[in-house]
Amino acid sequence: MIIKGGIVYDPANGIFGEEMDLFVDKGRMVEQAKGEEIDAHGLLVMPGGVDAHSHIAGKKVNTGRIMRPDDSRLGTEPRTGTCRPSTGYTVPNCYAIGYRYARMGYTTAFEAATPILEARHTHEELEEIPIIDKGALTLFGNNWQVMECIRNNDMDMLAAYMAWGLRSARGYGVKIVNPGGGEAWGFGGNVKGLDDPVPNFDVTPAEIIRGLAQANEMLRLPHSIHLHLNNLGKPGNYNTAIETLDLLKDIRPGRMRQVVHITHMQFSAYGGSSWRDFESKAPVIADYFNSHHHATMDMGQLLFGSATTMTADAPLEYGNARLTHNKWSNHDIELEESSGVVPMVYSRKMLVNAVQWAVGLELALLVADPWKILMTTDHPNGSPFVNYPEVISLLISKPKRDAEMALMHDQVQNRTSLSGIERELDWTDIVIMTRAAPARILGLQDKGHLGPGADADITIYNLMPEELDASQNHDLVKKALACAKYTIKGGAVVSKDGQILSTPPGRTFWVDAAVPQDDADRLMPELEEKFAKYYSVQLSNYAVQDAYLPHAQVIRAGLSVESLKEVA
Amino acid sequence: MRTIIMSPKKDFRISVEAEVISPDRLALLDIDQIKKLAVWQGNRQHILSDLFTVESDDSTATAGDTTVRLTGDFSKVKRIGEGMTAGVIEVQGSAGMHAGNNMSGGLLSIAENADDWLAREMRGGKVVVMGDAGNYVGAGYRGEKCGMRGGEIEVSGSVGAYLGEHICGGSIRIGGNAGDFAGAANQGGTIFIEGCSYLPGAEMSKGTITVKGTAKVLPSFQKMEVVQIDGQAYQKYAGDLVDNGKGELLVGSVRMV
Amino acid sequence: MSEAKIIKDAICSFCGCLCDDINVEVDEGRVQRVRHACRLGSSKILGHGRIEHPMVRKDGRLVEASFQEAYDRSAQILLRANKPLLYGWASTSCEAAKKGILLAEEVGAVIDSTATVCHGPSVIGIEEKGLPGATLGQVKNRADTIVFWGCNPVEAHPRHSLRYSSNSVGRFTPQGREGRKIVVVDVRETRTARNADKFIRVNPGGDYEVISALRMLVKGKGDLLPQEVGGVLKADLAELADMLKAARFGALFFGLGITHSRGRYKNIDNALSLVAELNQHSKFVILPMRGHYNVGGIGQTLAWSSGYPMSVDLTRGKPYFNPGETSACDLLARRDVDAALIIAADAASNFPRSTVEALADIPVIQIDPYENPTTLLSDVVIPCAIAGVEVEGTAYRMDGLSLRLRKLVDSCLPSDEEILMGILGSVHRQRQMMANQGV
User: 3-state DSSP call for residue C242?
Assistant: First the structure.
């Protein structure tokens, strides 16, 4: 295939809006090729979108569907010759997830949080999602074995356990959510801060985070730890964010990347001491990111309208439900985690929501380096992913932001700095934040760029970047980004002008980390004891079997990859 | 004024979905266009004239000036009057499920009985049933906080269970009895039942439910004073206190079992 | 193949406990002995009389047929029907369910599971209030207070108590049964009640009021309550409420006693609210005691495929969900179905009489390992290999945890998944033929 004459943005390879041809052969980018020609003259061309944090598969996602027939009945599309039926808006069915990402020009999405014990379910759903490539991050932050290793300061066994856990869950990376709090929630409690000891386990959240970060780097995993901070959603929690980031400053990375990725930072950038004096501390967070280089984050942008909050931060969800008087699902997972699901509606006229909306945008606009901050909505917590074009149009257009703020609660001006920010992101920034950076942060070498050897995941949008004043015509931008002219996945056109043309299965990436045999051997008796005494299933039935990953893509780590060498 | 008359051409064994039978949908179409509208019977799509005879003069009118008269057995025809905003539908016999779904104006009258989910999620307008109606009269959709938000429903006969579940506004009047859990999760609607009911107003937070006949009352309702309305004495209750509800329940005669 | 071997950690495919510690002795291609399973599970794994060949009804009698004939006849029945019902699914794997959903989409059918006669009302309750739950291992490791409401696990889920609940031992529950308070609420004193610390007898149909009264007591509004509610003395309810509020970790298990007594889904709705409110005082979870081993699985599979866990009407090409309208029992009671495929469920035994009469009047396809009353009504009977004994597959336990069923012995019979694919294949071919003929 040849894509002719597009205005190509491939920031990872130093291409910032150059008119050039792109060549595809056997599903990969190549220097030269023959074949079908796609005319992209003057049109915006970039790698396929990479969503590094989205709740798309697994028990809590399905619980969201089951408890929300009121949402499932929205967005219903009938089956066609190519497509199975679609349902749902904030909790779409598996087929809708694949089709809607593809229509928008996204070709890879990662499930944000999977408990090992229920990873089989996650993979069943991932396998049902058509077209996109995927992976799933594995939860470790409230795990009994993890906490015991850390209390005993046995980093080698911790690393062995993490490798074993990733293999059992066929997971891609290490996810940590409200570390320690999920275990405290097992008896209805929570942790209040980094140094608050976890009841019955004699470790603190700070120790859990540092331990997992160190072991993550010992294993040289492609991705860093992926962290949902303690005290998420609480006024004044920006302090926890800064403290946590400082905690990890001295960790040495095992690969050329950050040592921690903070997810949906918007929910952790709050000042004030209560909902009454609630305000944004995004500038403080942004300053930190501007002056430190060991961390990255994603926005977690909130948009007005309907959402479904679903997270492993179970105490937070219980709080949400009580506050909003809403239906509430909770699911605690033995020895491992907790989770909750609560429908939400965010409103312009509610000051708190208006401030939250501003915070996400402030973060993206105040951080100077777009490689450090990804564009997400923590789907479906902040908003469904189909609304990404709305977020982008806000980032590229000050007039749009001003028009939106005029509709909001009038106090929002006093609680955030957004109205004073003139910056408008350009296409380079956007492509970095939605393609190049997520791929690099996750450690996906063949994604997010268009250099030779990369996966031929390409999006062509119906926009002429050299002629269009994006800021003024933000509505055209939004419309064009919602419906790619062409979405190409692995060299095949899967979507054209919003119509799904083909539904090839995507691949599921997972990480197999090799550890010293001695450590693996020492680990087994501990695990065997846990299964014999505490788990409600047998060890031999625990791990995800091959049958659940017919399209696996294994990435090696640990002893299988070389360590970084220090350069004098 | 335009009148469109329809009648089934045969007995329907499998139910028919005919949400096109609504003044809004029909008013601006000529009779040939009407005959070609899509209706469904199970997984088979038909055109209206496959299943129904259609008579009408050839004028078009606004929805508000249109009367649709349904003669014959419509008891297995669902979604009559769905979404209507104006005009009149006269069902001369019985109507199938979901008659008047989502309607926001106009008049739907049913000479005999209505099936389940009469006027589900109604927003406005008026529904009149001379016979009985089924379960979920004026109720909502599964999982939604709010069901009926406005309009008036009158049923001369009796109705089944879950009358007005999740009602947020509007009024319902029942000439006969209502089944279990009438007015459950009432958030601001008005329900009047001439006859009897069982455990009305469960989880009610606002609104008024009156049962002129006998009702068993939940233990989570607080007995208040006796009130006189139109020469009839009612025991007033406040509830549902399981969730600090501020609804009003009036019962003519309280039963213990 | 004919060497004796012991298969460890097999998963029992009978009830919602999905016990996965079963040891099975296999010799000469057959299951010889089963260890650790209860008598219900053992009986299933050991096996009994099976249907051996497909059958098709000709001139009123069921005669032996080939699999292809059975597939073709099934496809014909489904294609002719205006509103076919694909029902059952609770005792087969998710892999079969996936094909069933595809078939329902292809022919334009309604697909529903046995939840319709079981925990369907629980699903509706969850749609109102959510489900504050946990995995069974949380109960084992933490629960000091357990309530069984409207269920009788001693008889229906025999190993539940030892593996997951009353008699289980865990990290924070080293004393097992002695460290726990067990409460049974039911209309009669069941065997489970006899082993409980407290038994509360409720009037039949009185559960909703009793739950409302408990909610009032939990909120400290007990003064407003009458002296007796639903056949229970207020004093007993007050004692129960205090016990629940004082729990370190409470678990409420419930079953058909409240899903199918007067109130139905409102009972569950109210119980879910009670548990949510208890969380203001103590840690509390609620779990449905699911009957069939994979009714959870068809629910999960249907939900991720269509957005809804049961009663999905696909006749118009897009999923429509409205239990009471799209549920199997209601459709049959109204005779609003003109063909049925019944798989992994014995509808004729478990449905109300009027619906069984409706089944007798329409063409029925049965896919099942065993002859049962549904066989008598069927026009096509297709025997299958048993998931968990002869076929691998995925099943979901009552708490939503999935496990992979093992294959213990070989079988000549196709799996449910293969049978459904056979029918799908025939549907495609027949459709193609009709298209070629310009039909």
Answer: helix
Does A73 contact chain B (CB < 8 Å)? yes
Cis previous bond, C414, omega within 30: no
State the pLDDT at residue C347: 87
User: Residue A544: inside a domain, yes or no?
Assistant: no
pLDDT in tens, B82-111: 999 999 999 999 999 999 999 999 999 999
Provide the domain limits for residue A178. Answer: 48-58+111-118+137-447
3-state class (DSSP) for residue C146:
strand
Please state, in angstroms and rounded to a whole number, the distance separating the CA atoms of residues C397 and C400: 5
Counting one residue from chain B and one from chain C, the pairs whose CB atoms sit within 8 A come to: 94
The span from the CA of A149 to the CA of A201, in Å, is 11
What is residue C110's three-state secondary structure? strand
CATH architecture of the domain formed by C120-288: 3-Layer(aba) Sandwich (3.40)
Domain C50-118+293-436 is found in CATH 1.10.300.10? no
Put simply, whether B13 touches A (Cβ < 8 Å) is no
Q: Which chains touch C (3 or more CB pairs under 8 A)?
A: A, B
Is the pTM value of this prediction over 0.95? Answer: yes
Count of the separate structural domains present in chain B: 1
ipTM above 0.95, yes or no: yes
Q: Which two tokens stand for residue B57?
A: 């003069």
Is residue B160 a part of any domain in this protein?
yes
Residue-wise pLDDT for A540-561, tens only, equals 999 999 999 999 999 999 998 8
Domain range holding B221? 116-255
Enumerate residues 265 to 294 of chain C having a beta carbon within 8 A of any beta carbon in chain B: 266, 270, 273
**B133 located within any domain:** yes
Asked if the structure places residue A477 within a domain, the reply is no
**A41 interfaces chain B, CB cutoff of 8 Å:** no
Rounded Cα distance between A251 and A72, Å, is 44
Q: For residue A545, is it within any domain?
A: no
Q: Could you tell me the residue ranges of all domains in chain C?
A: 5-45, 50-118+293-436, 120-288
Question: How many domains, chain A?
Answer: 1
Length of chain B as a residue count? 257
Whether residue B14 and residue C108 make contact (CB cut-off 8 A), yes or no, is no
Q: Which residues on adjacent β-strands are paired with residue A343?
A: A308
Is A32 among the domain residues? Answer: no
- The nearest CA of chain B is from the CA of A71 a distance in Å of 8
Nearest chain A residue to C306 by CA: give it. Answer: A93
* Closest-approach residue (CA) in chain B for A66: B143
Q: Tell me the chain C residues in contact with residue A65 when contact means C-beta distances shorter than 8 Å.
A: 303-304, 307-309
* Distance, first Cα to last Cα, chain C: 51
Please tell me whether residue A370 adopts helix, strand or coil conformation.
Answer: helix
Cα–Cα distance measured from residue A398 to residue A13, given in angstroms and rounded to the nearest whole number:
29
For chain A, the first-to-last Cα distance in angstroms comes to 45
